[in-house]
């Protein structure tokens, strides 16, 4: 039987194709790429941006954008480090997540209920939240206090040889996959991105759904911030610059439409690993950071061109 591969089939699986090609090329040009230590480090580096990108996908599916995620990472890292001197790990952890989600509810309220463009709202929040981080830390890095030293296990620890950060990423992925594929909420946010007016006329609350995705996005971003603090043991206000662009790039490489209504959680995660592999390989090849930025940009453009139907 002759199997015919159509153009539509190619565009459906091109993120997978790009990912496999990146794996093959990475292994060929860097002999140490598939070593156990390198793969573990690659996964640990990918987990925080993976969480942020999945949250960003939720927002983009509704036709919005969240430019504040990099600043949220910095501010929550500083917040957790300060709390770690006052309260024990579980309390500091939960308070940090709630504060991060609270930031998202402000953005969600302004976008959904006050009808301000998401670009404007999150751009303003990006500036303000970064400023709050600098005020809280007085511009200096803050080491994690003795009450919350367990945070280091999240960033560097393993269970049965599997990085804890990878386990967290997979658990969150599974929850969001079920939510988007099998729950009414997932179908609603996809419909909002495709035709918001039709959803509103059908009697579904568009405002509540749009409000929720911003809260979810910053909740996941806050969890990513805690993983990053777990790797370094320090909260610093200047971390996370440009993370919003990496998250958006991962979502777009994964084939999602910035206009909303179309996107895949699995392909977004593959987009994250594609970006991480690019950086990892260039580090192994000892390419300077300035040249890395140029090469990374070119590869992103080429990858996005493959996504065009």
Quickly describe the structure.
The chain has a single domain (46-300), classed as ABC transporter involved in vitamin B12 uptake, BtuC, CATH 1.10.3470. 74% of the residues lie in helices and 3% in strands. It has helices at 7-29, 36-61, 69-83, 89-112, 118-137, 151-156, 164-182, 184-201, 206-232, 243-253, 265-284, 289-307, and strands at residues 142-143, 158-159, 162-163, 234-235.
What attributes does this structure have?
309 residues, mainly alpha, ABC transporter involved in vitamin B12 uptake, BtuC, two-stranded antiparallel ribbon
Describe this structure in words.
By secondary structure, this protein is mainly alpha-helical. It has one domain (46-300): Orthogonal Bundle (ABC transporter involved in vitamin B12 uptake, BtuC). The chain is 74% helix and 3% strand. The protein has helices at residues 7-29, 36-61, 69-83, 89-112, 118-137, 151-156, 164-182, 184-201, 206-232, 243-253, 265-284, 289-307, and strands at residues 142-143, 158-159, 162-163, 234-235. The strands form two sheets. A two-stranded antiparallel ribbon has the order 1-4. Strands 2-3 form a two-stranded antiparallel ribbon. The longest helix is centred in the C-terminal third of the chain and has 27 residues, at 206-232.
H and E order: HHHHHEHEEHHHEHHH
Q: What percentage of the residues does DSSP assign to strands (E)?
A: under 5%
Give unreliable regions as ranges. none
CATH level 1 name: Mainly Alpha
SS content category: mainly alpha
The end-to-end span amounts to 28 Å
Mean pLDDT over all positions: 90
Count of the domains: 1
CATH topology: ABC transporter involved in vitamin B12 uptake, BtuC
Supply Rg: 20 Å
Helix count, DSSP H or I runs of 4 or more residues = 12
What kind of sheet is the major sheet? 2 strands, antiparallel
Going by CATH, the architecture would be Orthogonal Bundle
> Could you give the order of strands across the largest sheet?
1-4
Q: Helical residue percent? A: over 70%
Described by the principal axes of the CA atoms, the overall outline is globular
Q: Please give the number of β-strands.
A: 4
